[in-house]
Every structure is written in structure tokens, then in C-alpha cells.
Amino acid sequence: MPILKSKRKQLILDKIKEENYVSLEELIKLLETSESTIRRDLDELEEEHKLYRVHGGAELHHSLQEELSIEQKSVKNSQEKNKIALTASTLIDSGDVIFIDAGTTTAFLLDYLKGKNIKVVTNSIHHAAQLVDSGVETIIIGGLVKQITDASIGHTALQQINDFNFDKAFIGMNGIDEHYLTTPDVEEAYLKRAVITNAKETFVLSDASKLGQISFVNVAKVDKVSLIIEASDHLLLKKLKKKMKVIEI
User: Fold this and answer.
1) Secondary structure tally for the chain: helices H, strands E
2) Residues with Cβ < 8 Å from 25, sequence gap 6 or more?
3) d(CA 245, CA 156)
4) pLDDT tens across 183-208, in order?
5) Which SUPFAM superfamilies match (predicted)?
């Protein structure tokens, strides 16, 4: 006997609350119904602001100020993040001075920098330690360390960033909508904004789950950066291609 729509939608929400993310394949098996029906249910739940549609599924709707810990972020979409980082590494030339933002997607980039003749500036303690171990010339930004993201923030960090210029910058972002890049933390937003201003080119490394999400603080307009992301048929991605450079992997 078919499951009523109200029951299906509640089961979808229950599943997402358990794991923060659920794929279309999982829902088709769980609810024993068609993909088109599941997609309609997800569309309705997104309109009700109960979840976010992402490539291949959906994830829990978070508060504008909510931010996952490094541990929570690191287990999400790791294969996709690694592919994004590999693509980003091919854009780095010998002699470049680059900035690498704190974050789990940018962390995958570090493995591809061994042996490169570059200088790296970072606001992540974790990134700096790994880069030094790899023999890469590294400058770490000082300031207040935000434990949940391992990022140096605050006035001291911002002042140092404003003193530097970069050939290229590689940063993460919590949300990307049709107009703005966003993040939950005001201090991190200031830092990312300064990096974008001082870099010849800035690349946002993002998995598809960030598309359509909006966090508390606007960092910059989307046309100020290039986006490296996995290819998808996401409607927002098609719109973004008209406003910014998008590198699909």
C-alpha cells in the first residue's frame, strides 16, 4: 500500500535528522516509491524551509549562524573534496605566493603541494604544521584561534592579511547563493573579504552541498571569485556560470 505524502515527508525528515544528509537512492529504497515522487517531496520540504536540496539528495536545514566542527565537516563528501583540491593544485605555478584558508576542503589541497616551489600563507594551525612537514615555505597568520574551525581570526589576523598580496587564494565558503558568498562568523567574513581583495585570483573550493545555502554574513559578491565544484545539473550552478568563472570537475 502506498505511503501517504504526509507520512513520506515525515520519514524523509526523520532520516535527515539522523544523519544530516540523505541521498535520493536511500529515500527510494526506504519509501519504495519513484524518484520523481521523492523529488517532488524534497522540493516541497525545501519550500517549507525544512531541508536544503543538494546534488543527489538533501541535507538538514541549518541556522544562519550554525557552523559544523572540523570533525563533522571532514566526514562529508570527502571524495568530492579531494577531486576539487586536485583540480585546484593544477592552477598553482612555480614561484606563486598563495593563501590557503582554514577548512576541510582546502585541507585536501595540502597533499598536492609537496615539492612545489611556492610560498603559502595560511590562517590554519593544522595547515601550517602539515605544510612545514612537507617542506613548503609557510607563513602562519596570528590572532585569536577559533577552535571549531582551527582558524586565526580577529584584528591581529586581519591586519596581517592586509599587509600581504597573493598571486592566488584558495578559500572555503559555507553558503553560495545567486548573488553572494556567505559564512556564519563575522570575523571570518572580514578575513575572507580581505584575502579576496588582496589576491590577483581567488578560487572558492566548494562541494555541491553549499549551493543554495545562505549563512549570516555576506563575504563578497560571486563575481569577485572563481568557483571550483563538482559538475551537476543544479539550477543555481547554471545561473552562477553567467556571473562568474566556474571550473567543474
Assistant:
1) 10, 15
2) none
3) 32
4) 999 999 999 999 999 999 999 999 88
5) NagB/RpiA/CoA transferase-like, Winged helix' DNA-binding domain
H/E run at residue 151: strand 151-153
Indicate the class that CATH gives domain 70-248: alpha beta
Amino acid occupying residue 60: L
Q: Over 50: is that where the pLDDT of 72 sits?
A: no
Confidence of residue 51 (pLDDT cuts 50, 70, 90): confident
Separation of alpha carbons 16 and 227, rounded Å: 27
Q: For domain 5-60, is the CATH number 3.40.50.300?
A: no
Q: Residues of 84-110 as b/e, b for ≥16 C-beta within 10 angstroms?
A: bbebbbeebeeebbbbbbbbbbbbbbb
Provide φ and ψ at 71, rounded to 5°.
-65, -40
For the entire predicted model, the pTM comes to 0.75
Spatial neighbors of 151 by CB under 8 A, at least 6 apart, are 101, 102, 103, 123, 124, 145, 188, 191
Contact present, 92 and 113 (Cβ < 8 Å): yes
CA angle 141, 173, 184 (to 5 degrees): 85
- Can you read off the three cell numbers belonging to residue 79? 571524495
Please, are residues 246 and 229 in contact by the beta-carbon 8 Å criterion?
A: yes
Cell 594551525, residue located:
125
